[in-house]
Amino acid sequence: MKLDKRERHLRIKGNQGRTVVRELYLREDVPCQSDRCIAGCQNDGKLSTDTTHYIVPDCQIARDYLEILETPEVTGIIFTQTAVNSVQHEGSKRLFTRLQNLIKDGRKASVVFHNEFHKYVYIERDPGESLNHWQIKSTYKACEWYYNHFVGDVPIVMLTNDQQVIKEYEDKTVNIFVLNVKDYLKGFWHNLDGIVDLYESITTALDNKSKDYSGYLPSDILETGIKSGRYIEGLLEVNRHNASTEAFVRQSGTSQKDGEKMEDIFVSGMGSRNRAIHGDRVVVEILPKTQWKGRSLAIQQDDGEGRSICVENEKEASPAIPTGTIVGILQRNWRDYVATFSAEEEGSSGNKGGKVLVIPYDYRIPKIRINTRQIDKLKDKRVVVRLDSWELGSQYPNGHFVKSLGTLGELETEVSAILVENSIQSLPFTENQIKELPVDTQDNPWKMDEKEIKKRRDLRNSHLVFSIDPKGCEDVDDTLSIRELKNGNLELGVHIADVTYFVPPGSLTDIEARSRSTTVYLSDRRYDMIPPILSSNLCSLISGVDRYAMSAVWELSKDLEVLNVWYGRTVIRSQYKLFYEIAQRINEGAEEDEIVENIPELQNVSSADLKTKIDELRWAVNKLMYVARILKSRRASGGGLELDSIEVRVEMEESDVEGLTPKDHLEVHETIAECMIFANHWVAKKIVEHYPNQSLLRHHPLPRQDQFEILVKCAASKGFVIDTTSNKTLADSLNRCIDGDDPVVNKLLRQLAVYAMSTAQYFSTGSLPHDQFFHYGLALDLYTHFTSPIRRYADIVVHRLLLSAIENINCDHLDSNKVLDELADHINIKHKAAQNAQRDSQELFQSLYFKDKKPSDEQCIVNAVIFQLRINGFLVYIPRYGIKGPVYLRNKEGQVVYINKQGDSEWLSGSINKDDQSISVQTIHGSQTYKLFNHIIVQLNLQASRAHSASLRYDLLSNKPLKEESSNVEGANSTIKSDIVKVLTYLIIS
Amino acid sequence: MAGLELLSDQGFRIDGRRPNELRKIQCRLGVFKQSDGSAYIEQGNTKVLAAVYGPHEVRGSRSKMLHDKVLVNCQYSMATFSTGERKKRPRGDRKSTEMTMHLKQTFDAVILTSLYPRSQIDIYVEVLQSDGGNYCASVNAATLALIDAGIPLKDYVCACSAGFVNDTSIVDISYLEESGGGPELIVATLPKSEQIVFLEMNSRLHEDNLSKVLDVASKGCKDIYEILDRAVREHVSKVSHSLATTD
């Protein structure tokens, strides 16, 4: 193929006006990337074929109105290379990344057309021609090419906001429309809610946009400063509880790497924060030691409108820590923020149009000034706002209104606020995605493919396969089997739903699943990662039906040593779908009647078979639990950390923060978990062996020693010693911390241990040294996620890796290390977001639960345990609900709380003294002392808040524990649980 | 301004080439009449002249003379106007000296040196315009000049560079791609026997990827060979034609 060589003279900025000559090779075979092509381009067919027209934005639109183009409904956009270059050179790095992500996103079906490499589309810039003119000419030429390429089949819309251009080109070709954005949106998207509003608000924001980065040091100075060590770069993290004064710059780069601790740098006050916002990548200059400050040790109270109250005499602070001031911003990390109009704004109805301050839902974000003409319409709504700029000398950043989520306080509004705050997409699956998938309806039931069955190992008749899950679980992704082989060895099998069979890489479902990365479970609903037809039907390993599976099968010797292991695709039919409680009962020796009653699969079996069937099942369950017990003890004794309380295990593995009701803990939970850990471990081994540089694993780094401080202090107050040198010593010392009189002590210490842990993360094996692969919590050298492909994308990736490893394919077709590394980061972020959303929704429901309760209700007066002391109060743990919160000993007026002789609390003037082990209140009536692990009574008060989520206030009621409760924690749990369930069902119905 | 993107997601490089495409090569043999052999080559915007003198008796100090083979003397220089900023001196700086040594090593290995004991062959290479791949263009030009001079070689020696961007190997990298700081592999091969005469790498590259990049570079050498061979044949037929007509 012949290339045509041209030369292009470029004037490089800041190069004393010198020009450089660059080569340019023009070709004819620049693909159009559409399946509509009839000219035989080498296509990947990425460009949408569903849309009625293609959009070609000009350079200015691509820069300024990218947000409009990002709307999910707008698809089939052709970005010219000219526009992309213009975004790259003139826009910010962030804008360019956004553009790249848009193009990469398969759902947008949008492409880059390399018009400047095309022989017939490239236009040379005439000497003296303005850049803008040339760009417009090039863009129009590209439109023409596309139009002719599809022989006029598809109308092309060129977007520009330049009226002169519209006049010039409007009537040049039929069916190439040159429109401005407003007309386009009105003409084509009039039924799309809010998009015109979005356009308007972006336009107004653009009008008063000024250069944002004045006041910061220029980027080259920053760069050299960072290199020379004068400045430090890192992520800005604002203290949620003291947002206006305290922020920290977390240094990038892991602390383990060079062995030395990377300290956070304290940024005190809004002045030295210099318009940086939580999450930004900033550059900070350390102040001289004399100006270092300490962080406040007091717990901050909040008046519900975002202003924290700081009583003057509480200015006690920790010893001075490195303090700095922000001198520059490397990258803004702005996302969508949920915000609410403040109550005062609501009152002044005279304020129509113009600037309004809104209060973000997130405490860490400052108030945002937006322009809107719809104050009346939006005053009691929660709205989504995006930031545009923060000018020098302005107290607040500027933003624009994006959309409204709904009326304040409604459940749906609050849930969508949680989703937006955690950047979780909650759109339903599109038609195209569903179309890709098999159907299974009454008239047209889904059947297995005979050919496919032949390729797989058939376990349907040879193995007793069953699943154990929580009651009412729909997406069963793991099943188990165990049997004795003829030679007396055991054969353990873990069979996982074969999602990859239905979801080929690069398909729309795959792209969607990848972007969601995980199923999000909220208290009352869930957002699936893959469409329900797969997640709760075709992939779900329900009992009694044939299903495809991915299996790992081990042959274990009599001493349970692994003799060999087989991985591969199988066909299974699960015989029983058990739930945890009944499995536990079977193990404990339940009667036949009870078993039959709880297992529907056994109900129509003739009595002759029943006995053998039950015996079979009982043998399998017992054997399985026996095997798991041994495996677990082996893992623990191999230097393993055994954080065996349910909260800890759940926290570590399923990343589930314990809920309002601490869950019942059965041994069979551990059995299943252990089998899954076992399978994950062996799969990790296999894939690393085959693909040492591009496997997706999960590691859990060593905890930072300084994080253990609180735990050690707490334990010391009870006379226990915690040895944190290794996971083994930590586990052992935790096991020793048992207070005969108080079971909460051990539980609490274990939870504190969990807080000290770093979080487990996915990573690509090519980007970390081998000695960091280990999983600290599970004490395994290799670990990955394999067992839940229905709800985690990482498992899908691992399945694909495992499949290629089995077939021994070389690594070329797999994702490279770089791609995998980016993917791992993405999944980690999404997982974190899902966890946070889950926690937020639990808090939401917790507040709904307490909403109708009077403070004097029995549910609101509960026992609490002190686990951390602060200068003006302490933090307590409430065993009954499994929640933690602050108790203040000093109120806004500076009075302190005192428990009088009748056992009531009253506010008096007095002082507070705190030392390492205790905190005491001194008043004229006498003094009272609170120690760590003291039991007290608190009253829960729900504090509603307009702009933020409602929070609970904890008021000290008595310094003695409630009597009856401590003896009967379990009983209380069950009643509360049913109460919560009632609340939930009530809310869902209403 | 966001950083440059050396390879777009659609697989285009900054100058519009695909990863496996060479820059445009143009060459001519016999550009000078005074020297025994000469050639001019353009690889993209890199332009190199080469002239060969010899074999002749050893000039200068006779102590350099070798008794069993010919002395290959190279000189690499860059014209002061060859780069974006004017160079102070055309040769004698460290870079040029190193390049001279590399050229000498390369051609020591390909010239049938034992045919001319006690004599000397001079290879002068002048870079007129530099836009990445100076060594490669120099080797290719010198090969053509040696052929023009009629000096017996084992084979053509062709050189080509390759880089590695976004997990993709790119062949024949330009100055812009070189200055991106990524790995650069330079290889000179004998295309027929696929022997490597010279191999150099800058910056870091994971060893797993080395073979990929090397393959791409060797493929580039072969492609260059095709072009050089065609030029030589054309030149020879033209010369023989003109000889035939003058007879």
UniProtKB/TrEMBL annotation, chain A:
PROSITE patterns: RIBONUCLEASE_II. Its main location: cytoplasm. This is DIS3-like exonuclease 1. The keyword Hydrolase applies. Belongs to the RNR ribonuclease family. SMART domains: RNB (SM00955). Gene3D superfamilies: 2.40.50.690, 2.40.50.700, 5'-nuclease, Nucleic acid-binding proteins. Its cofactor is Mg(2+). GO terms for cellular component: cytoplasmic exosome (RNase complex). It is found in: Cytoplasm. One of its GO terms (biological process) is rRNA catabolic process. Keywords: Cytoplasm, Exonuclease, Exosome, Hydrolase, Magnesium, Nuclease, RNA-binding. GO terms for molecular function: 3'-5'-RNA exonuclease activity; enzyme binding; RNA binding. Residues 456-808 form the RNB domain. InterPro entries: Dis3_CSD2, NA-bd_OB-fold, RNase_II/R, RNase_II/R_CS, RNR_Ribonuclease.
Automatic annotation (TrEMBL), chain B:
It comes from the Eukaryota. Belongs to the RNase PH family. GO terms for molecular function: RNA binding. It is found in: Cytoplasm; Nucleus, Nucleolus; Nucleus, Nucleoplasm. This is Exosome complex component RRP41. One of its GO terms (cellular component) is nuclear exosome (RNase complex). It comes from Lottia gigantea (Giant owl limpet). PANTHER family: EXOSOME COMPLEX COMPONENT, EXOSOME COMPLEX COMPONENT RRP41. Coiled coil: none annotated. SUPFAM superfamilies: Ribonuclease PH domain 2-like, Ribosomal protein S5 domain 2-like.
